[in-house]
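Lab notebook, design round three. We kept the backbone fixed and only want residue identities now. Task for the bench partner: fill in a sequence for the structure below.
Input structure tokens:
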């Protein structure tokens, strides 16, 4: 019985060391966005027939797969938005005329009007007209 206990202690120590190495490698890879590599770090961890270690490993793999999916979704959304931004002028606000009822017309033709609040229009700007803001309340969107 004592020999069995010693063997289990040695095996647990080996698994702890392998787990720490796999976790460190996975965290380093994930921090750099390399989720497939992080997943492989845990897939290579072999706890033998020990189900509690397998459950820990499978939980980590599932977590990195989830993070990878979220990163892929975010990357796709960013790429789509970037693609939209490269197709020309998105909006153009002129300061040449005062906003009508607080609405700043978009002169780009893209239909993106803005709103002015807490600003005053003046025809005496550096290069034509301009807006003067009241610092505490000024904003435009």
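Proposed sequence:
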């Amino acid at each position: 019985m004592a020999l069995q206990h010693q063997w289990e202690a040695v095996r647990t120590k080996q698994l702890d060391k392998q787990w720490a190495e796999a976790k460190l490698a996975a965290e380093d890879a994930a921090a750099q966005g390399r989720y497939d590599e992080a997943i492989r770090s845990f897939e290579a961890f072999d706890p033998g027939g020990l189900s509690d270690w397998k459950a820990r490993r499978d939980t980590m793999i599932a977590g990195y797969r989830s993070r990878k999916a979220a990163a892929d979704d975010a990357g796709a959304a960013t790429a789509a938005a970037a693609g939209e931004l490269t197709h020309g002028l998105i909006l153009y606000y002129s300061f040449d005329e005062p906003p009508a009822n607080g609405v700043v017309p978009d002169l780009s033709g893209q239909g993106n009007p803005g709103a002015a609040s807490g600003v005053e229009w003046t025809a005496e700007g550096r290069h034509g007209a301009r807006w003067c803001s009241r610092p505490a309340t000024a904003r435009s969107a």
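Keep this in mind before ordering anything: DSSP finds three helices and five strands in the chain.
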